Amino acid sequence: MAQVETFDILVFGGGKAGKTLAIEQAKAGKRVAVIEAGLIGGSCINIACIPSKALIRSAEVAHATRRASEFGTHADNIRTSLDLVRNRTASVVAEMVAFNQTGFDASGFELVIGWGRFVSPKTIAVETGNGVRTLTGDKVFINLGTTAAVPDVPGLAAADPITHVEALQLGDMPTHLLVLGGGYIGMELGQAFRRLGAEVTIIETGARLAPREDEDVSAALLGVLQDEGVNVALNCAGTTVAGKSGQSVRITTADGRAFEGSHLLVAAGRRPRTGGIGLDLAGVELDGRGFVKVDNLLRTSAQDVWAMGEVAGTPMFTHASLDDYRVVSGQLKGGHRTTDGRMIPYCVFIDPEFARVGLNESEARSRNLEYRVARLPMDVVPRARTLSQRKGFMKALVAKDTDRIIGFGMLGVNAGEVMSVVQMAMLGDLPFTVLRDGIFAHPTISEGLNMLFANVK
C-alpha cells in the first residue's frame, strides 16, 4: 500500500467553499491539501458563472449594436464571430484562474490535481499524473459540486447533446439551437445564442417557464424571450430524440410536435458528484436524491467529515457555497453559525435580469402567511425610460400585520443591484416604510423602490 500522507485539513474538491476554507486554514498555519480533478478555482470560474456571464455580455453587446439606430447611431454590416466570442470568454476565465492560483500559492496549501476516491474513513486515494497518492486528514471537507444532468429521454444520450460546458466553447454558430429545458440555464443561454445570431427553440416539459416562480413572472419571462424571436414550446411531454448534435437533430413530443435543429443543448437540471467516489467506505450517507446528507452545521454521518456547497444540497449558487464556508469555518473557531433560516438571494442573468430574495406569493400561501403585495411596472421608472429598458416589473410582499418585507422580486434592468438594497432592509428587519420614504438619487433604478412601496396598502 502506498505511503499515507497526513494533513490537518483535507478538502475534497476545490469549489468556492472548499478553496476559501483551505486558504484560510493554510494561512493560519494548518497543513492543508486540496484534491481537485483539474478546475483551478472551481466550476464557477471555469465552466459556469464566469464564462456564461462573459458569453452573455458578448450577446448583450451584439444586441445593443443592432439597436444602435434607436439611440441615434447607425451601425451597418453587423456581424458576430462566435470564435472571437469564445476566445474572449476563455481569456476572462484564464485571468480568473491565474488570480486564484496566485492566491493558492500565497496561502501555502498543497494542491493535488487528480481524480480521488475514499478508500477508508477520512482517507482518499488520488490518481495523479505521477501515480497514486494516498492522503488522510484529521478533518475532511467534501466540496465536489454537481454536473449537468442528462435525463433518461429515448435517443438523447445517443445524440451526444452539449451541456452548458460545451456551449461555452463552441467556435461555430449553430444554425438552430434546440434547448431541452426551460429553467434558468436554458433561458440564459437560449437568449444569448439568439442574440449572437442563432435560431433558438426552448423545449420545456412543464406548462410554463421557471415553474418555481409566480405565474406573472413566468409569463413575463416568456414574453421577453418571444419578443426577441426565441421559440418557446411548453407542455412537451414524452419527448424522443433522433440524430446527432452538431449535425442534425430532431425532437418529437408525445402530442406529435417536432422540432429540428443543428445542435441540442441539455439544460435539465444537475446531479451531485457523489457516485463512484467511495463514500460508503468513508461512512458518509446520501439522501434520497444522491446528495450528501448533512445537518445544519454541514456535518455528515462520518466523524470529522463535513460537506459543503451543491454536493450537500445547498442551493446551487456560488454565494450560498461561500456561506457554507462561513458555517464550517465558524465551527473551527468555536462559533455557532448554522444553515438555519438563511436568506439566500439569486439572480437570473437573462436581459433584463430577474432577481429575487425571500418569499414569492406561492411560497407565502403554502406557509399560510397573510401578506400585502405591491407591484410596479418598470415602464414608470424614469431611469428605465432614459435607458430604453422599460420591460419588467418590481413586486414586494409585506406581512399583513407588521410592516416587515417578506419577499421581493424584480424583472428589470439592474434587478440584482436593486434586490440587494431590499435585502439589506430585510436583514436589518426594517419596515417597508424605510424604503418608501428614503431619499434615493434621481434618476436611478433604485428610486423605483419609493414608488413600489408607496403602493403597499
TrEMBL record:
Example of a GO MF term: flavin adenine dinucleotide binding
Positions of disulphide bridges: 44-49
Binding site for FAD: 53, 116, 316-319
Keywords assigned: FAD, Flavoprotein, NAD, Nucleotide-binding, Oxidoreductase, Pyruvate
Domain of life: Bacteria
InterPro entries: FAD/NAD-bd_sf (IPR036188), FAD/NAD-binding_dom (IPR023753), FAD/NAD-linked_Rdtase_dimer_sf (IPR016156), Pyr_nuc-diS_OxRdtase (IPR001100), Pyr_nucl-diS_OxRdtase_dimer (IPR004099)
FAD/NAD(P)-binding domain boundaries: 7-322
Catalytic center residues: 442 (proton acceptor)
Domain Pyridine nucleotide-disulphide oxidoreductase dimerisation: residue ranges: 344-449
Record: residues binding NAD(+): 181-188, 204, 269
Cofactor(s) needed by this chain: FAD
Cofactor notes: Binds 1 FAD per subunit.
Alphabetical list of PANTHER family matching this protein: MERCURIC REDUCTASE
The family this protein is said to belong to: Belongs to the class-I pyridine nucleotide-disulfide oxidoreductase family.
Protein name, UniProt field: Pyruvate/2-oxoglutarate dehydrogenase complex dihydrolipoamide dehydrogenase (E3) component
